[in-house]
Specification:
single chain, 277 residues, alpha/beta, 8 helices, 23% strand, globular
């Protein structure tokens, strides 16, 4: 059987791109770790983002949600000694917050639902005990941690999930000692790490690139800053494709994107330019 697909119809007008969950997780953590009043806006009403908001609350962050969960107001952060953090099904929440809780010296119990309890944590199981953190797990979740993270050299392969690297990048500036992340193999998913570093730098955190990874000076403080979460370039790609295929030549205005974004999916822009868009 043969089918013929014809181009037709008119594409014009404007569209608002939904916010990036990857950027939102990172923005929430930066704001929470500042411990000062600030506002994060343009959040998605997703379970993953709710998990990260719940995690920072468990770690002592005083915050309030507005506009049906699309805006988060940070009031401050209190020191807590113990926390129970339910990550729902969010791998980002889990892997970002394990070293953060350890850097804050919080005894934490991490829980999850769905398939998250089966997600591997081997990198942290190898690294954290050599830097002052006790882990108790039978493989995956539940996971209990205790002790306080120490600085130093953290050696891990570059082909693991970038979430492990991001978690360390969030945590290490909080330590008294300087630290270094050293990759034992080429980095994969570099876009997600670049996005993390971009948001950390906007929050006043210094990360020094090295040939084999990054140096992270200790004793740093996160700066409070109001932040609007950028749009998701992976979702924008659908509308860029629509505009490229439209025979009308009418303009399509795509709103909410950040042109200097470090999201890896922003690479789609160059691809569409090659197609003449």
């Amino acid at each position: 059987m043969e089918e013929v697909i014809y181009r037709g119809g008119t594409v014009a007008g404007s569209v608002n791109i939904p916010p990036s969950k990857s950027a939102a997780h990172r923005a929430i953590l930066c704001a929470a770790l500042s411990g000062k009043p600030c506002v994060i806006s343009n959040l998605s009403d997703s379970d993953d983002i709710k998990a990260t908001i719940g995690a920072v609350k468990a770690l002592g962050c005083e915050c309030e949600e507005f506009d049906a969960g699309k805006t988060l107001g940070i009031k401050g952060r209190q020191q807590v000694k113990k926390a129970e953090i339910h990550c729902l099904e969010s791998g980002s929440t889990l892997r970002f917050c394990i070293p953060v809780a350890a850097a804050l010296g919080v005894e934490a119990l991490f829980l999850g639902s769905g398939r998250l309890p089966q997600r591997p944590l081997g990198v942290y199981e190898d690294l954290l005990p050599t830097h002052g953190v006790r882990l108790r797990t039978s493989g995956g979740l539940p996971l209990e941690i205790g002790g306080k993270l120490r600085g130093g050299k953290y050696v891990l392969p570059g082909n693991v999930s970038s979430q492990f690297i991001t978690g360390l990048l969030f945590a290490l500036p909080l330590l008294e000692e300087d630290s270094e992340i050293i990759l034992s193999s080429p980095l994969e998913s570099a876009g997600y790490v670049d996005l993390t570093i971009q948001l950390l730098q906007e929050s006043g955190i210094v990360i020094e690139k090295t040939p084999g990874g990054w140096k992270v000076p200790g004793g740093q403080r996160y700066l409070a800053k109001d932040h609007r979460v950028e749009g998701d370039w992976s979702q924008a790609a659908f509308f860029l494709c629509m505009a490229a295929l439209s025979p009308s030549g009418m303009p399509l205005l795509i709103r909410g994107l950040q042109l200097d974004s470090k999201q890896g999916d922003k690479a789609c822009v160059e691809l569409f330019r090659q197609f003449g868009l």
